[in-house]
Amino acid sequence: MGTEDAARDMDVLRAALGEEKLTYTGWSYGTSLGTSYAEQFPKRVRAMVLDGAVDPSLKWSDRVISQAKGFERAVDDYAEYCADVAGDDCPAGTPEGIRTLIDGLYETAQREPLPVDGDEYGLDASMVLTAITMAMYTPEQQWKGLSRALREAGGGDGTKLAALAAGEEPAPGIDDSEEPTEDPGASDGSRHLRCRR
């Protein structure tokens, strides 16, 4: 099963929902999925937004490297601008302190998962990576919550960081009174709207 098959599955879902045309937003790999859908079913597209397009000329391994570099730049931006977006919630006083905290949490979680309330397995290194990566998609919505989660994880409690990695709503630090927003925990190919409770 590949991207073209997944795009055909999207058309099956469109039809099952009784929609004449598809409205779609895709990020990262989701841009490949959207492009494939539009190529196969051009008359069934109502509107499509493709953000952060994947270069189809790159080999798979080059795409992974390119994406990793993009997320590294985004984490550097988080460290540099955390105080502007998250204010006093920043987990460290300097950009270097934030980078050191993130590196330390990842290394710690590689050796032994951080405790998570109600989860016997805890927060491992891949979950640390997932939480941080997902928060980079929507900085204005996620950086404050990420900052609080990182601060608590730095103190030994991985609960909020695990919730962020799982895409649970509301994300840590998000005010329930805010308007509905896109789910930062959804996979790149399947973004969707989720309303706040």
Question: What attributes does this structure have?
Answer:
two-stranded antiparallel sheet; Transporter; about 200 residues; catalytic activity; about 55% helix; AB_hydrolase_fold
Rg (CA only): 18 Å
Helix count, per DSSP? 7
Structural class: alpha+beta
Order of helices and strands: HEHEHHEEHHHEE
Helix proportion: 40-55%
Shape: elongated
**In which order are the strands of the major sheet placed?**
1-2
The separation of the N and C termini measures: 36 Å
Uncertain segments are 169-197
How many discrete structural domains? Answer: 2
Q: Please state roughly what percent of the residues sit in beta strands, choosing from under 5%, 5-15%, 15-25%, 25-35%, 35-45% or over 45%.
A: 5-15%
The biggest beta sheet reads: 2 strands, parallel
**Count the strands?**
6
Mean pLDDT across all amino acids: 84
GO molecular function: catalytic activity
Pfam families: Abhydrolase_1 (PF00561)
Biased composition (Low complexity): 161-173
InterPro entries: AB_hydrolase_1 (IPR000073), AB_hydrolase_fold (IPR029058)
Walk me through this protein's architecture.
- With 197 residues, the chain is an alpha+beta fold.
- It folds into two domains: 3-56, no CATH class; 60-181, no CATH class.
- Helices cover 54% and strands 13% of the residues.
- It is built from seven helices and six strands.
- The protein has helices at 3-16, 29-40, 60-86, 95-111, 125-137, 139-154, 159-166; strands spanning 22-27, 45-51, 114-116, 119-123, 181-182, 193-194.
- The strands form three sheets. Strands 1-2 form a two-stranded parallel sheet.
- α6 runs antiparallel to α7 (159-166).
